[in-house]
Description:
By secondary structure, the protein is α+β, with helices and mostly antiparallel strands. Helix content is 19%, strand content 30%.
Amino acid sequence: MLRICSLLVLVVLAAPLGAETLVGAARVVDGDTLDVAGDRIRLFGIDAPEKGQTCTDASGVPWDCGGHATAALAQLVAAGVVCEGNERDRYQRLVASCRVGGADVGAALVEAGAAFAYARYSAMYVPHEARARAAGRGVWAGQAERPEVARASGGAAAAPVGCTIKGNISGNGRLYHLPGSRGYGATIISTAKGERWFCTEDQALAAGWVKARG
Length: 214
C-alpha cells in the first residue's frame, strides 16, 4: 500500500509482514522521538534523557543533558530520515530504526553519549554505550540517571552511590541538606527542576549551594 503524505515525505510503504517505512523530513520532539508528516516515531533500542533532565559533569556541575539530546538528534536528522519499524507502542508511535545517508541515528546518539542503550528492549546498542562510557562522552562525563529511572520515580532522582547530600531548590534558594539534618527525610530531589545530589560538602559549596540550617 502506498500513501503519499507530502512533498517532504516521499512514501509510506506497508510491507507484507506489517513493516512500515517512513521517508522524509523530520521534526524532533525530544531526544528519541521524531515526527514525520504527523506520524510519531520512537527510536528503537535507545533511551535519551528527558526534557528538563539534568546530568552533572566530572566537576559535579549540572548541565542540560535532556536539551543536549534533543539538539544532537536535530543535528543528525537535518537532512531527512529513512525509518523502518514493524510495531507501535502504547502511544501509537512507530518504534523504528532510522538512518540518514545509511548511518544509524540511534547508534550515533548512543556512541556520542547523547542517549543510553535501552537494553531492556534490545542489546543492539550496548557496545556503543560501552565505548561512550569508556571515553567519558556526553552523559558519561560525570553522573547521569537513566531516563527510565527518572520516569519511574516521577521526577524524584535516586542518589548516586556514595552521594547522599541533597541539593534542594526552594524559595529560600539553593540549599544542601546533610543526612540526619532537619528536613532531610522530607526533601525530595527532582533533577527536572535542577536539583541534584552531592557527594561532598565541598562539591555542594563549589556549585553554589548553601548549607541548610538545622
